[in-house]
Design brief:
InterPro entries: Fork_head_dom (IPR001766), FOX_domain-containing (IPR050211), TF_fork_head_CS_1 (IPR018122), TF_fork_head_CS_2 (IPR030456), WH-like_DNA-bd_sf (IPR036388), WH_DNA-bd_sf (IPR036390). GO terms for molecular function: DNA-binding transcription factor activity, RNA polymerase II-specific; RNA polymerase II cis-regulatory region sequence-specific DNA binding. By secondary structure, the chain is mainly α. 39% of the residues lie in helices and 7% in strands. The strands form two sheets. The chain has a three-stranded antiparallel beta sheet with strand order 1-3-2. Strands 4-5 form a two-stranded antiparallel ribbon. α1 crosses α2. The chain binds a DNA duplex through α3.
Length: 250
DNA sequence: CGCTGTTTAGCTTTCA
DNA sequence: TGAAAGCTAAACAGCG
């Protein structure tokens, strides 16, 4: 018997957790990140059940976003004013769900404290980069002696940066195979950041979803581009297509 | 002021 | 049956 499609639940509550629904919404977005209001919209558009009692489930959903490390809050870029941040999926949270199912997760995705600190540090660095690159050119705004120029914050760099791509998501293979090191890991060596090396307008979610955790890679455009290309060729598109297919089958 | 985000608490459900 | 996962409620702070 064919399984019901997502749209066939009608007023019945869909068998997805809030985490699954949120992950679906984020993955269906072109940029793989959404503001809270768009996550609400995705869910209410597809699941009529959630068009009522909005206060209740939206509160639960916000709780899940804050509580679970699998969701990353990404500050808005200055050219995208609005309320609230963007939310993305942590790249290491790909294989949370049992047998590729969005019904129940294998285990809670929890970052180690050290990893969490690294991530926060990197997001702070990105916010700083955005501030620098989205600052209007000096000749575009009348000089105002009351404004303090933005001083670039020091971006921590390492001599070696490892970009860890997630295992191919939602396959039995990914669930049963070891996390043994492989050539899936790309080692790049960033150079010291400078104004000419930094890439403007690269969004945090793009970087995070490309599996590159260390934003020092910003300092080496060639490595960043190479990393991105390899990711998309071997994993990125396939992984997102898998999730998209799964979320449509259920 | 309403929305967003965080946190705590208590309960139910599911799984090993 | 205990632990983990999930759901709900609520209080509160910050921000646009």
């Amino acid at each position: 018997m064919p399984r019901p499609s997502r749209e066939s639940y009608g007023d019945q509550k869909p068998p997805y957790s809030y985490i699954s629904l949120t992950a679906m919404a984020i993955w269906n977005s072109p940029e793989k990140m959404l503001p809270l209001s768009e996550i609400y919209k995705f869910i209410t558009d597809r699941f009529p059940y959630y068009r009522k009692n909005t206060q209740r489930w939206q509160n639960s959903l916000r709780h899940n976003l804050s509580f679970n490390d699998c969701f990353i809050k990404i500050p808005r870029q200055p050219d995208r004013p609005g309320k609230g941040a963007y939310w993305a999926l942590h790249p290491a949270a790909f294989d949370m769900f049992v047998n590729g199912s969005l019904l129940r997760r294998r285990k809670r995705f929890k970052l180690l404290k050290s990893d969490k600190e690294i991530l926060e540090n990197e997001l702070a660095a990105l916010t700083n980069i955005n501030r620098i690159f989205f600052q209007p050119p000096p000749d575009a705004v009348p000089s105002n002696p009351n404004l303090t120029p933005v001083e670039p914050m020091e971006v921590k760099t390492t001599t070696e940066t490892t970009c860890i791509r997630p295992k191919r998501a939602f396959t039995i293979e990914s669930l049963i195979s070891d996390d043994k090191p492989s050539n899936n890991n790309l080692t790049i060596t960033p150079v010291q950041p400078s104004a000419t090396h930094l890439i403007p307008h690269v969004h945090p979610a793009w970087l995070l979803n490309s599996g590159c955790y260390d934003l020092a890679a910003f300092a080496n455009p060639a490595a960043l581009i190479q990393s991105s290309q390899m990711y998309h060729e071997s994993y990125g598109l396939a992984a997102s297509e898998d999730l998209f297919r799964v979320s449509h089958q259920l």
